[in-house]
Please model this.
Amino acid sequence: MDDLVSKYKEKLEAELGDRLRHGGLGISQQSSQGSAGSSSITSREYEQFRTERLPAEFTIYEKACGVAGNFFTVNLGVGKTKELEENIKVSHLNVKPGNVSSLAITSLVLCIIIGIILGILAGFFFLTTFLIIGILLFFILLRVPTILASSWRMRASNQMVLCIFYVVTYMRHTSNIERAIEFASQHLTPPLSLDLKKVLWDVESGAYSNIRDSLEAYLSSWKQFNMEFVEAFHLIESSLFEPSEERRQALLDKSLDVILEETYEKMLHYAHNLKSPITTLHMLGIMLPILGLVILPLAVSFTESIKWYHLLMFYNVILPAIVYYLGKNILATRPSGYGDMDISDLNPELKKFKYVRIPLGNRELLIHPGWVAGILFAVLFVAALSPVIINIVSPGTDYQISKSFKMFDFEAKNITNTATGRVTTTYTGPYGIGASILSLLFPLSFGLSLGLYFKLRSSNVIKVRDDAKRLEEEFAASLFQLGNRLGDGIPAEIAFGRVAEVTRGTQSGTFFELVSKNLVRVGLSLQDALFHPQYGAVKQFPSNIVLSSMKVLTESIKKGPRIASQALLNVSRYIKEIHRVDERLKDLMSDIISDMKSQIHFLAPTISGIVVGITSMITLILRALAQRTQQLTAQGAGSGFKVSIPNMLGGGGGIPTYFFQLIVGIYIVQILYILTVLSNGIENGVDDLGEKHALGNNLIRSTMIYTILTLIVMISFNAIAVTIMSSTLK
Model:
């Protein structure tokens, strides 16, 4: 008897211990069931997952904060410290609030030191510039945890509809919230998958006694930012306590309806309020700066103190930073949606499609696109610098095209040292048409190399994703048919074959045909026919929707074909609802997105190309006028005339078209990049793969349009200017 009591005590302790380690199973109706084939989330797994999934810039920032914190730590006060701690926790950073302030102060001090050194060596302008950069870096680095937390929330909120979909889908056939959260964390990608694993880990590590407390603590961080997500999860939790199966299912359906409908309403308000900030961004970031470039040649010609690097600092550093900041603020207010993902995160074998693949017999040579883009950039950039390089090697060297056109046309200036009386010759320019044409290689070097890099990294992978998305569009109807077959009592092995016959010729028909082939011809089990590492049908169609639906099928089929039928019918309905809301969201954004795409594809490069062409003509005319007035002055045209005209025209100098086009060309590439990121973010939310694909297409296409149009306008207008001046300035 004692041995028997001891035996059962040990068994009870083992079960209760397991129940405590999985604290939360006790609040579900299926608490006694184990998670077949699932592994518990331990602290070591979470830390490894965090290390592998967090972006590389997070680690760099953490290391920088650690280095700065070794020297000194600044106390920011209770309020600021608490805010930083909350943002650090949200973004999963491994830093201390005091180290954040240390890094910000260190960057400010370093910029001041560099500015003082350059100010002494090169002039006051560099001291002022680095002082401004240091102040900006101080405030930016102090807000990095806040910025990262905001970005993290935006990326996570884009996955919340899918998160609720996965949890509800699992809970319909197995009322166990812990296993449902684990199911969702396995099918989502970071950052929300990391958050859900953290919820499980907090229970495993003893931070909370059960899954309900851990989940409530996590949801409290979203109450201010995404209340519909919190409400949906509360409805899911409420379903655990419903004794009636009908009411339990109704609460689960209601949770998905809540997040879909409220997401649509928030997106509707977002679309209505978006027109004003987009118009402001368009005017401040594109129209006014580009149109303002028209008067710059005149302003520079009349004011010798304005140099080309002053404009470079404003147009290529300050202005893009302002436009990028305004764009990020617009994206930060975007509600959650139904976002896309990089499918190479789902199937690591697809990562090879992000490389340039050169077949070598039975093997492939994989070349990183960065090498290809880097070589292209180096060749074009060096070719663009050739006029400056030639002048350094052989000062004043020029090549005559015709009497009116010169290749480089460096202007010689003699500077007399009043102390020694020594005369030194400096050359300004290049002003020639050849140098202006070669300067077009600057935007090409940046635009084509970046565009080629993004295109090579995304074009092959996005083809696979497009095939998977076409499957997802048809999948709801196919699942409905499969569910009906199972509901009629037909075994799954036969049901797949019948659905494959009905849907033949479609992506979903190909998928079901492959499953049927694995079941009938190869003789695999249903589990292996779907998920076998080599032959599984899911592997050929990398889609989280397909993967999760088939996981639900294999889980529910164990309880009978009718349970599996009901599960698939519900999944089919959920997919249709999500797709319907997603299409409504895209319809809301269509007008704004079409306007932004027209700016990217045509307006911005066209207007800029025409402005640069006109500027080159104005510069040519002003230089010809200055040279002619100098000749008249030398012939004795009067003392007053001799003093005023050359000074008024700046001696004929001004900013050469070579440098002017460099500034405008690089600014166009920057604006194209920012507008593409913004338009993709507004349309699709956080979609890294779609963003890279859009950047690859837009940067290559629009940079080529700008370059070709600028070349045509530049040559045409200069030819017209030379014809006019040859007949008037004799």
About this structure: Residues 18-43, 641-652 have pLDDT under 50 and may be disordered.
